[in-house]
Specification:
With about 425 residues, the chain is α+β, with helices and mostly antiparallel strands. The chain contains 10 helices and 14 strands. The radius of gyration is 22 Å and the shape is globular.
C-alpha cells in the first residue's frame, strides 16, 4: 500500500482509478447473463497470421492505448461510484488461436455473442484468430460494451496491424460535410408517442442473441445528392421494419430508429471507451407505406432529420441519464432505480438501432503474408425491448451488414427474411439523378 492507503503496483507506483462515465455506469447497472452486452467485430484477412507475432503486436497495441487496459475496481456496496482500475499490463492471455475446422468461425461468433470478457480482468476484450479454409484468417474480437465500443476497439486493432505488418495504418481523412443549422424539421413525428415494436417472428427456446452477416453492394447515390449513404441505410431500415410488421399484422405505429453518432478523431489521439452519443430518428407510419411512396422525398426528409439531430448538442444518453448517475447516493441504490426506470420506460424505447460505422478508415494491413482486410463486420447488442440491431460498415466498395436479434423475439429463419427485405429496400433507395 502507498502512504495514503491506496494500492500500488510493484515498484511503488500508485494504481490509477477512473470513475465510470455515464454510459459505462448505466450499462453496468443493467447487465444480465442471458443476453450479455457484447460488441462483436469480425475482420477477414486473405492470408495466415503468425501466432507469436500477432500476440506480441496486440499486446503492444494495448500498451499504446492504455485506457483499454482497465478492470472494474472492487468496492463496498455503499460506494458512490464504480471505478475503473488502470493496469500496466493485461491480466492474462488476450489472444487465442482456436483449432481450424468447418465450424470454427461460427463457434467463435457464438462465443462473441454469449460470453462477455469479464469486467474484473484487464482488458475487457478477447481476440480469436481463426484459420479459414483456403489459407485466410478471421479475427473475431469480443468487446464488453460496458467498457468500450466497436470504433474504439477497431482503433486498437489498426495499431496492432501496423505493429504486426510494419505498414502505415493511419486513418483516411473523413469526408467533408456541410454544417447544418440545428433545426429539426416540423414534419417529424413527436418523440413522446409510443413507437412501434419489431413484430415477433419465430422465437427460439434458447436464450441469447442470434446473428447473420451478409455482404451487399454499396447503394448508388447520385453525385451531389443532398443525402448520404447513411440516410439510405436509415430509410432501408425503416422500410424493412415497416414491411416486416405489415407481414406479421402488427398495429401501425410511428417508428423511431436509434442512431449512434461518433465525433471522435480516428488517429492515435482517439479517446478509448464508449464515445458515441445516441440520437433518435422518427418516422410517421404513413410515410413508410407503399415502400416509401416518393423515395426521393423520403430520402430528403431523412437527410434533414439526421443532419439536424446530429448538430443538436446533447449528452450521450440524454439529460436524464446524467441525473441518474449523479454520485449523491450509493451506487447500489442508483442501480436499483435505473433498472426500475428501464422497465417502466420500455414501451417508449426506440423500435430498432442502426449503427453505421461507415467506411472503415484504416487499411488494416497486416503485411505481405496476412494481407489487408477484405471485410469487416460489427454487431451491436440486441436486448429486448428492441430485440433487433442493424450494424453496417463498408470496405473495398462493399457493404458489410450484420443483423443481430434477441432469440426471445426472432429465430434464424426470421433473420434470413429480414436480410432479404433489407437488401430489397436498400436497392430501392438508389434513386436516379433528376
Amino acid at each position: 500500500m502507498t502512504a495514503v492507503g491506496r494500492p500500488a503496483w510493484p515498484g511503488g507506483r500508485p494504481v490509477r482509478r477512473v470513475p465510470f462515465p455515464v454510459v459505462d455506469e448505466i450499462a453496468r447497472h443493467c447487465l444480465q447473463d442471458e443476453e450479455p452486452e457484447t460488441v462483436h467485430i469480425e475482420v477477414r484477412l486473405p492470408g495466415p497470421v503468425d501466432p507469436a507475432r500477432l500476440t506480441k503486436a496486440f499486446g503492444e497495441a494495448l500498451r499504446r492505448h492504455p485506457r483499454i487496459l482497465m478492470r472494474e475496481a472492487p468496492g463496498r456496496w455503499y460506494r458512490r461510484r464504480y471505478e475503473w482500475e488502470l493496469t500496466p499490463e493485461a491480466d492474462g492471455p488476450v489472444v487465442a488461436f482456436p483449432a481450424p475446422g468447418p465450424d470454427a468461425v461460427r463457434d467463435a461468433r457464438t462465443r462473441a455473442l454469449a460470453q462477455a470478457p469479464p469486467l474484473t480482468t484487464a482488458p475487457p476484450v478477447r481476440l480469436e484468430a481463426v484459420p479459414e479454409d483456403g489459407g485466410g484468417t478471421v479475427l473475431v474480437l469480443t468487446v464488453n460494451h460496458t467498457a468500450l465500443d466497436g470504433p474504439a476497439c477497431l482503433r486498437v486493432v489498426a495499431t496492432a496491424a501496423e505493429l504486426y505488418g510494419g505498414r502505415d495504418n493511419s486513418p483516411a481523412a473523413p469526408p467533408v460535410r456541410a454544417v447544418e443549422p440545428p433545426r429539426v424539421p416540423g414534419d417529424a413525428p413527436s418523440n413522446w408517442s409510443r413507437p412501434a415494436r419489431v413484430a415477433p417472428g419465430t422465437p427460439s427456446t434458447t436464450p441469447g442473441n442470434g446473428l447473420l452477416v451478409a455482404e451487399l453492394p454499396l447503394p448508388h447515390r447520385p453525385k451531389g445528392a443532398p443525402y448520404t449513404v447513411n440516410d439510405q441505410l436509415m430509410v432501408a431500415t425503416a422500410l424493412t421494419v415497416a414491411h416486416w410488421n405489415r407481414e406479421h399484422g402488427a398495429r401501425p405505429r410511428p417508428l423511431r430508429i436509434t442512431m449512434p453518432v461518433d465525433d471522435r478523431p480516428r488517429d492515435l489521439t482517439m479517446p478509448i471507451g464508449n464515445g458515441t452519443r445516441l440520437v433518435e430518428v422518427p418516422y410517421r407510419w404513413d410515410e413508410l407505406m407503399h415502400d416509401g411512396g416518393d423515395m426521393a422525398a423520403l430520402l430528403h426528409r431523412t437527410a434533414s432529420r439526421t443532419r439536424a439531430l446530429k448538430s443538436l448538442p446533447r449528452p450521450q444518453l440524454g439529460h436524464g441519464a446524467a441525473l441518474l448517475t449523479a454520485p449523491v447516493v450509493p451506487v447500489a441504490w442508483r442501480a436499483a432505480a435505473t433498472r426500475a426506470l428501464r422497465r417502466a420506460a420500455s414501451p417508449w424505447t426506440s423500435t430498432i438501432l442502426l449503427s453505421n460505422i461507415g467506411r472503415i478508415p484504416y487499411p488494416l494491413d497486416f503485411g505481405a503474408e496476412a494481407g489487408r482486410a477484405r471485410a469487416v463486420w460489427f454487431s451491436a447488442p440486441a436486448r429486448m425491448p428492441r430485440g433487433l440491431t442493424v450494424t453496417t460498415a463498408s470496405t473495398a466498395g462493399r457493404l458489410h451488414l450484420a443483423l443481430r436479434w434477441s432469440r426471445t423475439l426472432l429465430g434464424d429463419g426470421d433473420g434470413v427474411r429480414l436480410r432479404d427485405l433489407f437488401a430489397h429496400h436498400l436497392h430501392s433507395t438508389e434513386v436516379p439523378a433528376p
